[in-house]
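Hey,
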Amino acid sequence: MKSLPILVIILIFISCQTKDKELDSTEFAYLVDTVMIDPGDEILFLRYRLISADISSDGKYLVNFNLDDHTIEKINLDELRLEEKLPFEIEGPNGTGKHVNFINVLKGDSIFIKSFGQSALFRENGELVKKVDWMNAINGDSLRYGEMPTNELAIDRGDLKVFGLHYNNGLAPY
C-alpha cells in the first residue's frame, strides 16, 4: 500500500506529458519557365545570368544592362522580342561609370544605376537626373556615411529614396 501513492504520482506524471507533435511540412513549389526571345539582329547580353537586369514596374519589360556595348536591352515580355537598345555613356556629364553592376527600374522612364564608385538616377534616353553622393550622405545616426555601401536600393513612390547598406561579410576588418 505504501507504493500505491508513488504509483499514482508516476501515472499522473506520465499521463500529463505531451507527446511530440509531428512537424507540419510546408510545401514549396516553383515553376521554371523557359522562353525564347527574338533578339533580331542583336546578341543579348547573358554573360552574368541577368545579374544587372530588372523587370519594369508594369511587368511588361525585362530591362538588361549590356556591359559589352554599354546599352540597356529593353525586352518586351508580351511579344518575347528585343524591342530596343538604349545607349548610355561611360564617362562625361551623363556617364554611368565603366563597371555597372546593378540596375533598378523605377516608375516611368527612370533607371537607378549602380556602378563601381558611383550611383545615379538616369532617364531611359541616357540623361543623368541625379547622382547619389554617398561620401556626404547622412546615415541613420545623422552622421556622414563616408563610403560606398555594399548594397543599394532605390524606391520611387513620388519622391526618390535611396537606401545603402554596408556590412562586414567577414572578409575585411571594420
